[in-house]
């Protein structure tokens, strides 16, 4: 297991290098510079600004010096937010996005696994169709539609919950967490249904049934562990997706998280900010994928043996 | 099994609710704000900087005017200059020398004395090219300021700003500039606190931390309390402010409400006193149901389309005029924009300092067709492929779609819509990489000069390739030397007529500012610069019976 | 006549038992027929899909406008048909392109192994590690002229469509690549591949004639399943203003425009929303059905 983890981490180095290079090139080849403005900018001002952010150097030199900074963990100053560093901005947004992602994931897991397991116990009955159609609805409903709908119903019509903010007014975390979690709940429901169906048809479950164990005990003690492996494998990409994909929810609910910073940075051509966030997210995604793979291996004895030989 | 799961579900739901810290709503933010004198203000975006010599946007402007103050303020109804840091001033008969007498009780927010030397130093700083001040041109009416900024002059003592003593500031101008007093209320001419600026970096260094929470020292009615990025900025009443007794609000919260629909919902849920904008499609609803909360007033801004006169078929002014005549502006204002925007037939908004542009432009389909035929495109035949470029935004799209249809109906020509995201659009327009582009100009000060001098041959904001030496001569030579206000306006009228004759830009409408304003905001008159005076505003909760309704009503 | 034991026939038989998948297939086919015949409806109703009529904005259903008009007075029914054309076409092309790239990469990595495999798999990992949406903003802004695309494409109205296909193709191939690589690894050790190699068949011949046909079924399943997500992605891009550009309609941009009016004119959001829902769900059921049908482990 340890060798597996180390091997994967070593592989991550070239991956990150590719990510940085591709993003660097992309960002610098996109039209519209960070300093283009509504009003005409005098050439001397542009020059002063470019000199300040080293944009007057040749591209390869900028690239090398950027790489050097990143290795030291320094993402540089933000172009847009005068006087703030990218590290500082990430530090400001991360706790909020992480909290939002965590709640959303919890909601997704609770609802998704419940629905999926319920469906798998009685496949092709109403108990299967109803939660599964619900899940499909969740997958198909874009969050930019679900969010406003929830807000209009619970925030304005019923006036139960605040319509925006994060930690400013009690209860303002509920609607965004549900909105973000909904789509993932749906995926998890489908995955856990599939996983459970497969496990429930296996011999050891039949044996357990034959031994006369009660159905709930079989499900909870024997089936869940194997049936949820697909869900566990999905957790890594899901959490990374939640972090990166939270920006629609953050925009709708006015949440000061990383997603909003990121999208704003892309629109503002805040080069260092886009790069810094991309590297940061890429690292997170790699780490979470590794973690969820390790968890899946640990849950599945067959894979555990393979991993000794592999990598 | 089924039972187990169905019993789990409500438990989980309750657990989630507990995790997310309690359901149920008490008093709304607006209600508690009314009680405690805290104003919740929708402010569009996160400010890029609060340094008055670096910032450029309107949202930044709102916050900076709460934190800092210039020599002169504007009356929030009439926009006439009223005393600010200067308690009085004297203008010489030739209109070239302004002498300001500063208040002795003016203080910085840390208690330091505030005097005339602060202005000399601050303005010197604002004119350092390394600082990258986009509003440096606001200083150019001052004697030698432009020469100094552009490096033709090395010694700042030759620029027309002098502190005669601690409380007397003398300013010498290049030419009589009737709008000069107005400029002093623009944040680019605000003073900054030298010890604070120098504590965090050199004078002309960008992006130092002097404007951050806990560091900023200003001279305005409020002081910076918290700056939570992307969340809010809060300012507290400044006890050292010279007019502190008049300031009623205890605190103002500025929220970066980027998403208009979200902002409107926040307002409806009692989380904001004031919104920065109103979504177009909500205007009719508010008009019908809650018109007292909808505030629409004229705004000193002009919406127009630029023609790229370097494009072959658009270099013909008959084509440009034909296109302009084929647009039914009234219909766009009534059916698309719907907020009482005024159809525009000239670039300068009417009644800008008593100036009314004279325009011979009308909606005239017959003449438009005739001109088009004359230019060689009878019934639109052979008209080359043309694009309308606009930056990605709902309102621009709707206007462009409507105009596309009108040109199709009237002139039988097909144009293509092209939207680009803001930064790309800016580059395309600046590089002349467009045929027809949506544009706007918001007045920095109330004077026709502000709307006309961008059309100079080498005007940085011209961008159409249009150049007429006669026009330049009127704006640069004749207008500044005019003896009387009336004569000056007459020159502007002639210049604008010339501009409209050639039509490098197609005027469409004059902006309105649209806001949702809580009835509890008092003493908040509207003006065409859409400039609030936070030191005058106070909050008073409407009768309790009323506030119950406002919270619940839906639309 | 037909070999009753051929794998294809068996798959067909298993598929037919999957009633939901059959039903979805019918739904999708009829939808395709409908959107293809959009111009006919245009002639029949006597209005065109992009025609703005500011005097009849948001009117209800009538003979001329079966589903009413939108906020600019355009016919909603026609826009839904044309939007469907674009959305379905975008989904299908983008998914196919992504799958082709994935197949080639996965096949090469799995077949040749060694350094090439390591390189291609690191590339795949990098694309997986890239946060998609913010990069799309940057990608969507890139001047297509500069990267050498012909003027005719860049200048055409459909450029936003090509962009989306390109973006999905460039970022969406990783699933297929991993899938194909895994399958190739096991297939290349099988007897028939060994035999082909033995008689001196070229690598290309083996890859595309012997290995690829055995991979077709999982690839088809993957494509089917991803069509829906492309349609959804387009709607999110539209929310950011980067999707299919007006005046061309797509279900995504119709839904985005309607979300501001969700309280005043909910139907404007319901129609495209419902169509997206039906399409995505149908593609998913179809994919499930195909997966079961092609499953080698399945009982007959």
Task: Describe the protein's architecture and organization.
The complex is a heterotrimer of chains A (311), B (555) and C (300). Chain A is an all-alpha fold. Chain A has a domain at 101-310: MetI-like fold. In chain A, 76% of the residues lie in helices and 0% in strands. Chain A has 14 helices and no strands. In chain A, helix 1 (2-29) runs antiparallel to helix 13, helix 10 (229-245) packs antiparallel against helix 13 (271-299) and helix 12 packs across helix 13 (271-299). Chain B is of the alpha+beta class and 555 residues long. In chain B, strand 6 (161-165) and strand 7 (168-172) form a beta hairpin. Chain B is globular. In chain B, 46% of the residues are buried. Chain C is mostly helical and 300 residues long. Chain C has one domain (31-52, 66-294): MetI-like (MetI-like fold, Orthogonal Bundle). Chain C is built from 13 helices and no strands. Chain C is elongated and about 75 Å long. The mean pLDDT of chain C is 80. The chains are: A mainly alpha (311), B alpha+beta (555), C mainly alpha (300). Chains A and C meet through helix 1, helix 5, helix 6, helix 10 and helix 12 of A and helix 5, helix 6, helix 11, helix 12 and helix 13 of C.
Top keywords for this entry?
heterotrimer, A: about 300 residues, mainly alpha, MetI-like fold, 14 helices, about 0% strand, C: about 300 residues
Q: N-to-C SSE series of chain A?
A: HHHHHHHHHHHHHH
State the major sheet of chain A: none
| Sheet with most strands of chain C | none
Overall helicity of chain A: over 70%
CATH fold name of the domain at 101-310 in chain A, please? MetI-like fold
For this structure, the CATH topology of chain C is MetI-like fold
How widely separated are the two ends of chain C?
20 Å
Mean pLDDT of chain A: 84
Q: Strand tally of chain A, please?
A: 0
Helical segment tally of chain C?
Answer: 13
């Amino acid at each position: 297991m340890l060798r597996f983890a180390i091997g994967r981490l070593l592989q991550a180095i070239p991956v990150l290098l590719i990510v940085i290079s591709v993003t660097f090139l992309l960002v610098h080849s996109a039209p519209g510079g960070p300093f283009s403005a509504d009003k005409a900018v005098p050439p001397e001002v542009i020059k002063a600004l470019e000199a300040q952010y080293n944009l007057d150097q040749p591209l390869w030199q900028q690239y090398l010096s950027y790489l050097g900074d990143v290795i030291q963990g320094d993402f540089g100053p933000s172009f847009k937010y005068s006087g703030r560093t990218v590290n500082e901005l990430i530090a400001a947004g991360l706790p909020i996005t992480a909290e939002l992602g965590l709640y959303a994931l919890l909601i997704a897991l609770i609802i998704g696994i419940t629905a999926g397991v319920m469906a798998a116990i009685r496949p092709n009955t109403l108990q299967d169709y109803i939660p599964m159609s619900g899940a499909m609805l969740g997958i198909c409903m874009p969050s930019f539609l679900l969010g406003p709908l929830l807000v209009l119903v619970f925030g304005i019509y019923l006036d139960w919950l605040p319509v925006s903010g994060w930690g400013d007014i009690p209860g303002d975390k509920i609607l965004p967490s549900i909105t973000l979690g909904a789509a993932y709940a749906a995926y998890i429901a489908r995955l856990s249904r599939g996983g459970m169906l497969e496990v429930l048809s296996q011999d050891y479950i039949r044996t357990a049934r034959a031994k006369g164990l009660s159905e709930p005990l079989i499900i909870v003690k024997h089936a869940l562990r194997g049936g949820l492996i697909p869900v566990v494998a999905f957790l890594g990409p899901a959490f990374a997706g939640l972090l990166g994909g939270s920006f629609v929810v953050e925009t709708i609910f006015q949440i000061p998280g990383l997603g909003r910073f990121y999208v704003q940075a892309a629109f503002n051509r805040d080069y260092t900010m886009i790069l810094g966030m991309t590297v940061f997210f890429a690292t997170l995604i790699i780490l979470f994928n590794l973690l969820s793979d390790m968890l899946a291996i640990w849950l599945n004895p067959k894979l555990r043996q393979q991993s000794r030989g592999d990598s | 099994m089924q039972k187990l799961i169905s019993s789990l579900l409500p438990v989980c739901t309750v657990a989630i609710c507990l995790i997310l810290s309690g359901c149920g709503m008490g008093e709304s933010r607006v209600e508690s704000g009314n009680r405690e004198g805290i104003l919740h203000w929708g402010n569009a975006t996160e400010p890029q900087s609060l340094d008055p010599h670096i910032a450029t946007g309107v949202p930044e402007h709102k916050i900076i005017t709460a934190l800092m103050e210039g020599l002169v303020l504007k009356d929030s109804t009439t926009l006439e200059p009223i005393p600010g840091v200067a308690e009085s001033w004297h203008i010489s008969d030739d209109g070239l020398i302004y002498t300001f007498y500063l208040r002795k009780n003016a203080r910085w927010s840390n208690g330091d004395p505030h005097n005339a030397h602060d202005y000399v130093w601050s303005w010197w700083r604002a004119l350092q090219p390394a600082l990258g001040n986009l509003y440096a041109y606001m200083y150019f009416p001052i004697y030698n300021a432009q020469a100094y900024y552009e490096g033709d002059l090395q010694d700042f003592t030759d620029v027309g700003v002098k502190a005669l003593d601690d409380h007397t500031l003398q300013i010498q101008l290049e030419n009589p500039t009737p709008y000069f007093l107005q400029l002093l209320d623009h944040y680019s001419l605000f003073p900054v606190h030298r010890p604070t600026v120098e504590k965090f970096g050199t004078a002309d260094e960008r992006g130092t931390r002097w404007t951050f929470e806990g560091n900023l020292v200003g001279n305005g009615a409020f002081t910076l309390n918290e700056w939570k990025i992307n969340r809010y900025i809060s300012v507290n009443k400044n006890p050292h402010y010279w007019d502190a007794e008049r300031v009623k609000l205890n605190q103002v919260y500025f929220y970066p409400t980027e998403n208009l629909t979200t902002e409107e919902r926040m307002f409806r849920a009692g989380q904001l006193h004031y919104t920065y904008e109103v979504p177009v499609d909500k205007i009719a609803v508010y008009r019908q149901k809650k018109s007292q909360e909808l505030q629409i007033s004229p705004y000193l801004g002009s919406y127009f389309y630029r023609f790229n006169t370097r494009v072959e078929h658009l270099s013909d002014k008959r084509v440009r005029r034909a296109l302009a005549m084929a647009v039914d502006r009234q219909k766009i204002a009534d059916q698309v924009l719907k907020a009482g925007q005024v159809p525009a037939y000239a670039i300068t908004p009417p009644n800008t300092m008593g100036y009314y542009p004279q325009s011979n432009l009308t909606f005239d389909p017959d003449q438009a067709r005739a001109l088009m035929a004359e230019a060689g495109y009878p019934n639109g035949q052979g008209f080359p492929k043309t694009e309308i470029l606009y930056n990605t935004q709902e309102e621009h799209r709707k206007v462009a779609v409507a105009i596309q249809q009108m040109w199709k109906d009237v002139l039988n020509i097909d144009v293509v819509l092209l939207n680009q995201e803001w930064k790309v659009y800016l580059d395309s327009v600046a590089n002349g990489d467009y045929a027809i582009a949506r544009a706007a100009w918001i007045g920095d000060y109330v004077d026709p000069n502000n709307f006309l001098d961008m059309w100079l041959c080498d005007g940085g904001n011209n961008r159409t390739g249009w150049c007429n030496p006669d026009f330049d001569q009127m704006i640069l030579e004749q207008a500044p030397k005019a003896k009387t206000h009336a004569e000056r306006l007459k020159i502007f009228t002639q210049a604008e007529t010339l501009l409209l004759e050639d039509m490098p830009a197609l005027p469409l409408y004059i902006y309105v500012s649209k806001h949702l304003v809580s009835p509890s905001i008092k003493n908040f008159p509207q003006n065409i610069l859409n400039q609030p005076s936070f030191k005058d505003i106070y909050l008073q909760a409407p009768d309790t019976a009323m506030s119950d309704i406002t919270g619940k009503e839906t639309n | 006549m037909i070999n009753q034991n051929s794998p294809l026939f068996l798959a067909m038989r298993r598929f037919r038992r999957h009633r939901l998948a059959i039903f979805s297939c019918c739904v999708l086919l009829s939808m395709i027929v409908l959107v293809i015949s959009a111009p006919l409806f245009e002639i029949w109703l006597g209005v065109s899909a992009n025609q703005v009529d500011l005097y009849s904005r948001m009117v209800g259903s009538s003979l001329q406008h079966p589903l009413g008009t939108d906020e600019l007075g355009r016919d909603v029914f026609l826009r839904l048909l044309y939007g469907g054309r674009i959305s379905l076409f975008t989904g299908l092309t983008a998914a196919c392109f992504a799958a082709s790239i994935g197949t080639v990469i996965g096949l090469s990595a799995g077949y040749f192994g060694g350094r090439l495999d390591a390189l291609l798999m690191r590339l795949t990992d990098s694309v997986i590690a890239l946060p998609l949406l913010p990069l799309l903003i940057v990608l969507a802004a890139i001047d297509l002229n500069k990267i050498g695309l012909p003027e005719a494409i860049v200048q055409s109205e459909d450029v936003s469509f090509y962009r989306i296909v390109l973006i999905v193709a460039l970022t969406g191939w990783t699933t297929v690549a991993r899938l194909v690589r895994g399958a190739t690894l096991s297939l290349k050790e099988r007897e028939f591949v060994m035999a082909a190699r033995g008689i001196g068949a070229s690598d290309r011949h083996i890859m595309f004639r012997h290995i690829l046909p055995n991979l077709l079924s999982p690839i088809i399943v993957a494509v089917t399943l991803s069509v829906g997500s492309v349609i959804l992605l387009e709607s999110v891009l539209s929310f950011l203003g980067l999707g299919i550009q007006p005046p061309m309609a797509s279900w995504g941009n119709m839904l985005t425009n309607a979300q501001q009016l969700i309280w005043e004119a909910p139907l404007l959001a319901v129609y495209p929303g419902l169509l997206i829902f039906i399409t995505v769900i149908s593609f998913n059921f179809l994919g499930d059905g195909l997966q079961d049908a092609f499953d080698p482990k399945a009982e007959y």
